[in-house]
Amino acid sequence: MSVSGTSRAIKREADRGSLWRKWDLHLHAPGTMLSNGYGKPDEATWLRFVDILEQSEVEAFGITDYFSFDGYINTLRWYGQSHPDSTKLLIPNLELRLTETVSIDGKNVNTHILIDPDVATPEVLAKLLNDLETHITVNNKRLRCSELTAANFGAATVSIHDVNESLDRCFAAEHYMIVTAAGNDGLRGTAKNTQRSKSISDELDRISSGFFGKAKSTDFFLSESRYEDGSKSDPKPLYDASDAHSFDDLARLTGDEPSYQSTWIKSNLTFRGLRQTIFEPGHRVFVGDRPPVLVRLEREATQFIDRLEINPVAAYSGHNGTWFQGVDIPFNPELTAIIGNKGSGKSAVADIVALLGNTRQVKYFSFLTDSQTNRKFKRQGFAENFLGRLVWKSGLDVERVLNADVNEVEPEAIKYLPQNYFESLTNEIEVQALRREIEDVVFSHVDISDKMDAKSFHDLEGRKTSSSRQEASQIKTKLRELNIKILELEDQSEPTFKAKLQADIEVLRKQVSALVASRPPEEAAPPAQSAEQQAAAERITSQTQVLEDLATRQKSAVALLGLHKKALQEAIELNESVNALKTRVESEKNTLKARYGYLGFDIDQIINLTVDLERVTKKIDSLKEKIAALERDSAMRFDPETDFSKVGSIPDLRAAEKHISDGIAAMRAALSAPHQRYQRYLQDIREINEQIIDIEGQKESPKLGTIAELEARISRIDNDLPSELSKAYEERKELCLALFESKRKIKTFYEGLKTKVESRLEAVSTGDFKVSIDASFVQSPKFGEDFFSHLNQNVTGPFRGVADGARAFQQKQSGVDWNSFESIFAFVEDIIASMKTGGIRRQTKDLKKFYDFLYSLEYFEARYELRLGGKDLNQLSPGEKGLLLLVFYLHLDTDNSPLIIDQPEDNLDNDSIFVVLAKCIRDAKKTRQVILVTHNPNLAVGADAEQIVYVRLDKVNGYKFSYECGAIENPNANGHIVKVLEGSRPAFVQRRLKYQIT
C-alpha cells in the first residue's frame, strides 16, 4: 500500500467513529523505578522494547512508572526515533502507592494517574511531581515525588486527597483520570469486617475514574449499590492490563497468557476516547478474547455495510449542480447517527443506501422521488447523472445509477423505515398495515418447533387455527386456505418466484463462502510442554468430543421435537375432523329422515358411519408424552461420574453442554499460551463448520430456510407444481359460516402466542410506557357500516333514519360481551325480534344475506391486541403508534440485517425518546448494524452512537454535498452535535458530560 493509500485507510478508520481496539494502560518501561526486569536500559534494550510494542496488536499503551514519568518520557523519545510514523497512542501513567490502607495486613492501595498526552509536556509532568508530597520526611520536611531517590522509592506513599489537590492545581479535569487497582494491591482486599476499611475503600472508589482488575469484577464496578452507606454508586469502567516489568511479561500483550486478558475499548484512539469509557462503562469496555460485534463482523460479513460511495457519471457536465462528488462514507458496524440541519441531505444518504440495499420501501422515499406532490432528485436531469456504490464488509458490492429500480428478484439486504412510510403506518386509521408489521416481528419469536413449517405469521395462524373449526367454519376455512393456496401456487408458477428462490440460495452460498473465508489459518498442535499440560490437553480433547456429541444430540432432539409437535397438531386435526364429520353426517341423516321418512326407508340402514378414534387418541397421548419427555427440565447436577450419554431432554442437554463448555473453558485457562491458541483454533473451526452445516442443511430432511430446503422447493416447482395447481382448482368449495367455539379456540392460540413476547416487552416498560398484549374478541371497526349496508333505512323500523338508526344500533350493542356466546347470541336474537315486529323483509335489501351476516358472527374476531398504557392500537396517537412500532423493530425483531431509520423522533416527546427509544437502540445495535437519521440528541447521544456523520448541502454553491464523520468524542463531531442538536434537560446533562464540557 502506498503512503497516500495508508493515509486514506487511517482516515477512513478515524471517520468510522468509535471502534474496538486493544488497549494496555499499565505496563512498565525499561529502567522502571521498582522491579525492573528488562535488564540494563541501554540502546539495545530500548529498541527491543519499542519494537515489541509497535508489533503488538495493542494500539494504546499506558507507560507506567512509580512516582516518576521517566519511563514515559524515555519511551516517547525512543519511539520517535525508531517509529516516527507509528499510529500507536502512548499515555503517561503515574503509579502511586497510597497512604490509605484497606486490608487486614496493612498493604497499601496502588492507584494510577493517566494524563492526556496532548498536555503532558515534560514541564507540566515535572510540575505535578514537584507539587505532590509523599509521607517521607527529611529534616521535618515532607519529600516531594520529584525528590525521591532510589533508596526511598519502595517506601514512599501519598495521600489520595493530596493527589486530588495536586491534580486540580496542575490540570483541567478533562486532562487526567484516576484509575485505582482493584486486585491484589487494590480495593478488593478490603477487610470485610472493618468499618474503617470499608469507608476508605468507598472513598477511594468515589474519587476514582475507573479500576484495574479482572473481568470477574466488572459487574461489581458497574453496579449502583457498592457503597457501605447505601448511597448510589456510579457505574465505572474496569480495565485489565499486563503490568509488565520484563520482556517475558510483554507476552501478556497478546491476551493469551493465563490471568491476563485483553482489554478492548470502543473509542477514538485518543485520551478523549479513553475518557468516554467513564460515561459509558458498560458499553465501551470489554475484557476478554474479542467483543461480540467483532466476531459477528467476521462471521456475518454479508450483514454489515462497510461504506457508501457516490460520484457523478463520466458524462455529467455539472449543469444541474455539483451534488455528490467523491463521496466515500465509511459506516460503523454498530450505531451511526446522521445529523444535519433541515434540507442538508440526511434523508438523501438514507434513501441511497436503501436503494442499493434493495429495499421494498421505494415508494416512500423522500429524496429519490419524482411524485406529483414531491418532485425531488429523481426528476429528469438529476438522479440519472449519479452512481451509487454500496460496499459490504464481505467485499461484495452493489452499484446502481440513482434513478434505477430495485431488483425485486433479489431479497432485501437491509430493513428501511423511511419517514414517509413511518408516517403512513402511524397515521393509518384502521392500523391494519401497522398491525401486519408488528405481526411479522412477533412471528420471529415463535420457536422453530412451533412454527409447523409456516413461513409467515398468517401461515402459522391458518395452520394453528385450522383444527379449530366446526362444520360450517371448517368448510369456510378450507375454502379460504384453498384460495390462498391457489394464489400461492399461481405465484410460484411465475418465473420470478423461482428466480427469487435461486437468489436466496445464492445469498446463502455467499454466507457459506464468507464463513469459509473466516476460518483461521491452520494451527499445528503444539508439543506438550509437560505431563500436566499433555494431560490437560487430552482431557480437553476428550471433553470436546463429549461436547460435540451433546450438541449433535441436542440438534437431533430439537428436530425430533418439531416433528412430534407437527405430528401432534395433525393428529388433533384428524381427531376433530372425524368428529366434525360424524356430527355433520348425523345432522344430514336427521334432515333426510324428516324429508324422506314417509317413503318407508330406514335412513340408519342406508347410512351407517363407523368411527373408531381409539388409535388416534393413543397416538395423541403418546406424542404428548414424547414431547413432555423432550421438554422436561430435570435440573440435573453434573459431576465426574455423570453418564452424559443418558442425558435426553433438550433442557438437560443444554445444561450438560454448558457444564462441559464451562469445564473446557476452565481447563483452557490453565494451558500455556500456545495450547490456548491451538484449542481456540479448534473451537473456532468447529463453530464455523457447524454454522456452514446449518446454512447448507440436509437433503434428507431439510430445515426451513437452508440451501437444501430451497433447492427442494425449486425441485417441487419444476416437477410437482402443475399437477398441484390443477388439483387445487378442482377442490374449490362453497363458503361456510364460522361458529363461536371455533373462534374461541383461535383466541386460545393468540393467548399462547402473546407469551412469546411478553417478557421482552416487560423489559422496555417503564413509567407511563407500559406495553402489554391482550388476547380477546374484538369487534370489527366496520361492523356498523356492514350492518347498515343490508338495511333500507327509509322504511319504518327500529333502525329507520341515519342518525336515529345509528343510536338504536349503538344502544343494542353497548351491553354485548364479545367474549360470551350467550351475550352475542342474545344480541342477534334481539336484533331479529325487534325488526320482525315491523316487517323484516321490507327493512332489509336481501334477508338471506342479512341472516348470513348476523349468524355468521364474522363481525368480531379473536385477536391479540397490543396495548400501550391500557389503550389499544386504534386509540393511540400517531406518536404513540410510532414509538410502539420502533420498540418492536429495535427490541424484538430477530432479523440481523442492517436497520436504517429516517427521523423517527417526529411526534415523539423527548422523555419517551430518552427513556424508551434510546434504550431500545442500544439493545438493537448489539445484534444488527443501525443507521439512524436524526435531529434529536436523545437518540444520537443518549443511545451512544459510535459514529456521527454530519452532512451539509450548500444550495448556494451548486448544491454541493459535503460531510464529516467521527466519534462523539471527536472534537469536530462533538462541535457539530452541540451546534445542530438540542433536547430535554436530562439529555443535555448527559450530553454535557459526554462532550467533556466543564
UniProtKB/TrEMBL annotation:
Residues 472-518, 564-633 form a coiled coil. This is RecF/RecN/SMC N-terminal domain-containing protein. The lineage of its organism: Bacteria, Pseudomonadati, Pseudomonadota, Alphaproteobacteria, Hyphomicrobiales. NCBIfam families: TrlF_fam_ATP. SUPFAM superfamilies: P-loop containing nucleoside triphosphate hydrolases (SSF52540). Keywords: Coiled coil.
